[in-house]
Fold these 2 entries.
Entry 1:
Amino acid sequence: MSAATVSSAPVKALPGEGRIGLRANLRHIGALVRRNALQIKQDPESMFDALLMPIVFSLLFVYVFGGAVAQGDRSAYVNYFIPGMMAMGGLNIAMSVGTGVNDDFNKGVMDRFRTMPIARSSVLIAKLIVETGRMLVSTVVLLVMGFIMGFDLKTGPVELLAAVALALFFGSSLTWIFMLLGLSLKTPQAVQGLGFLVIMPLQFGSSIFAPTATMPGWLQSFTKYNPLSQLADGARALTSGHGAVAHPVTMVVIWALAITVVTAPLAVAKFRNKT
Amino acid sequence: MTRYEHTTSGGNAVEVRGLVKHFGDTKAVDGVDLTVPEGTVLGVLGPNGAGKTTLVRCLSTLLVPDAGTAMVAGYDVVRQPRQLRRTIGLTGQYASVDEKLSGWENLYMIGRLLDLPRKDARARADAMLERFSLTDAAKRAARTYSGGMRRRLDLAASMIGQPAVLYLDEPTTGLDPRTRNEVWDEVKRMVSEGSTVLLTTQYMEEAEQLADDLTVIDQGKVIAEGRVNELKAKVGGRTLQIRPTDPEELHRMVGAIAQAGLDGVGGATADVEEGLVNVPIISDEQLTAVIGLLGERGFAISGIDTHLPSLDEVFLAITGQKTSIAETHDALEEVAA
């Protein structure tokens, strides 16, 4: 017992010693990406939301609300809605990551990863890569739906790819937020509850589904700064050739970088110190 | 693979001094000292909630201790966690494999995470599945495995990196006796190949089967330590078991021992089912006296044996308390009665 009282106070790990090199780090991330991809293969239902959500939302919004919103001009609404929906897809998948992470990270296999000579961030980065892949699949489904419903790409494939890349980049930053939430909250239900509370006003208080011109002033000032509006507007400008491209795109990039810079280290720290 | 180049003084694989870990007011680990010489098995024995798992989590860098020092394979758990992780393997109470992946994919992934080239990782995964008798189940998702298979896969995963020190945190909790024996056989094999093992258990029989040395902990403190046999001897008292050639003589033998009234020899009892007479004794002299008496009286004896007390009894003798398992058992019996 006396030994305990004379012993040293907790010390931090020595910096630099035994660091994981970049090549090793990439190899570890590769092995963990494979793990996440195999999980999807074992459990194909986990792709349902990525595949079905764009189909269901497209049908619902274009055929139920579209005519009314665009005053009868449904094809105009398709052109409005599809780029907006790109912003929505990332949000949706990011939220499912939050609940998945909570479940996954409470499993014994995470203890194994955390006792192995790998950078602990590689577990999260691998997850991020696979989820961004899911977002890409979801976006492709959305575009196929869009073209079937008469989406008219007025620019070219380069602009379309730029719009997709922008949406994925922003979506990946949202994934960090939800990984942080998933690691911080105790149950998947809590993540889902809090997620909805944040997501609902953000997705509907935006220009994703409808132009903001008829909204009251206070709401318009909210939508104006809502990054989802900026993403939707940016994607719209890129695919329609109308409206400013530089401003919304710059804003989205700034938002995505800011979110990542703040939440990624917090999420990694949470994972590192999880007991 | 990395074996430790610089061992601690005296070739100890694990040296823990005054380790403390508190969770709020709960002193989960409260000043633990322990030493595991290289190539030996230390059993950490204690009831549920004694702090065994917290101890293992501190030693495997999952928790940062509040005070004290711990060196594993020559590395400080707090200051050199990255190096330390190269030398340890952990099999937890809850299977630490990915349930959605097949057995082979689990092992291949771990090989890759341990920086094995693809070819080597594949070969190692195959070899490990073979060794742990899982080849037939190699392609199935781990969630379809039985409890014993899962635990074997877990051990295989821990062994891929050929760790210098292996932690087994209650490796057979929740397994049926047959599966438990399978796991024991595997652990014995690893030890025979030179692994150093720190094993936590709440089963006395498990410690007896696997451990060289024993540290008994309760409420975060070490309450006894020593060789398994030393600890049992410390508690004192043995049972002398005598097998008469003619089972019909059991009761006559018991009567003869009782009549003689040998000093310090307790009441003999007959175990009809096993065909044995059990005599509690304390010293070797008493053993000689009992056997001598039976010889004088002309009893034919076909076998004798002495048994040390069970570790349950050891725990009771050391702490003056029953283990939580025994307590639960007693409580259940009271309810039943």
Entry 2:
Amino acid sequence: MTDLSPHQPPAPPGSIPHADVEHRLRVTDTDPKTAKRAERQVASMFLLSVLFTILFVVSYIGIDKTATIYIPVMGEVGALQIALGFTLGAAIFLIGAGAIQWAKKLMPDVEVVQQRHDQVSPEADTLDAAGQYERGKEESGFARYRMIRRTLIAAMALFPIPLVIMLRDLWVPTPDEVGKSPADILSTTLWHDGLRIVSDGTYRPVRPEDLPVGGLISGVPADLLEVEEIQGNLNARGKAAIILIRMDPADIRSQQGDGWDYQGILAFSKICTHVGCPIALYEQRTHHLLCPCHQSTFDLADSGEVVFGPAARRMPQLPIGVDEEGFIVARSDFAEPIGPSFWERG
Amino acid sequence: MKFLAARRRSPIVASALLIGALAVVGLGYAAVGSVQPAQAAVGTETQVEAGRQLYLEGCSSCHGLEAQGTGNAPTLVGVGAAAVSFQVGTGRMPLAAPGAQAPGNMPTYTDEEVAALAAYIATLAPGPAIPSAEQLDYADADIALGGELFRINCAQCHQAAGQGGALTQGKYAPNLMESTPQHIYEAMLTGPQSMPVFSDAQLTVEDKQAIIAYVRTLQTEASPGGLTLGKFGPVTEGVFLATAAFGALIAAAVWIGIKAR
């Protein structure tokens, strides 16, 4: 579409006329020496690109993939990746830079006028389209056959329902979940009276004396690994994860149930009541539990109440005690569903 | 000056001014913020007595003459030698200035002075001792186990790659990239500041050695993929791309668009 003839008006027949603006000549247009230099610049960029392409192949063959190299700011990095990335990037960049330099310095840069059509369709086309629409409406009888129209609307409206219903299959019930409603399943966890609390990761049972004041343990039920083996999924872990903390009993201002602690040891769900992130950012001096996702903050010395952030419910507390062998156990399941709110909770 | 005047409307000028201003403010703040506390004098003959002297001179104004604690600072009775070694050995104490948190700093006291202070505090009441060389020997530790334990017990605050992270009200979990094995062990054992305590009964000596071995791996391993950007993951990588890469693309577009002279 552009006029390729350099600065020689008048334009050849059939081409687009130059714009009626003042045209400033470039140094390369007037000085042959500069033009020659620009030509050499472009050619050397293309030549460097050839060199980097060859270097890429050489690096690929020659550099051991486990070798590392120290580069300031970046630190100790893989030599092969750096070499491949730099040579390939430079080879491509130099082709582009050379092309732009060529276009800017040596190709014609005269201002031209480009003719365009009107944006609006001709009136005849508009009338024709409207007429076809009206004819279709008339011939199909969409306005006339009222029953057909209404049943079609009903059919189209109901059609997406199967797609929505199939979303239920995203949740696959485990053997002991069969026959229960989703609300029941969300409201119960593995915890029951007498079930030992073990440290997550090591799966060692916990004695009260293992947990000093200011201590924190991420806990799971003692039978979690067996359950996971049967179920083959992580739902049980997700629901039963707790944190055990110990504070000076004098610091406990309130609890969710009378005597739910054991000598200052408290157990709370690890799952945020906002949208279910696992939380263990426990500040032992303020007794605050902070969720890293949206900064909901719970005061564990005060029944796990929300003191900051978007969470609407307190962190559920698990009543604990010790068994006859002196290990910390749960005394029941949670009294309220853990984790985020759901439909049936209202 | 004519050269500068002619280019003051160039698109590069605004960016250059902004970068220059940021550098001046940042470096100025760093220079003002890193004022060191005064050096304390060395004590007398026996270690405990020397420690007591150092304590009375450097610590008692806040922690009390008998280390019983005051309105400004907690009691040190029963914190143990490990707490002193961590707090003073990492330069957190003596506190340079009141704030949300005592930051790590250049230690004010020498290693011998820290040992003397620790010996004195340990005589006040039983508390966690400084870990022995044997406890700190992580040569045979299980790094994979250490990684798992780190992700369960430490990563929630210190971030999965040990880069640290924010807590509430200006407090933060520090970056672990410069931490020594002894200070990592002591921090787990004593729970300094906001950090919970991880006793030797809960995370055994072997568990702690495994965690230390994992942190040492994080500290020393190379980064084969190039610039780590703080190992914070997709957020910093996205910000980097949005600024550096898009900036470069915009600069290229401007270059293409400018008419040649």
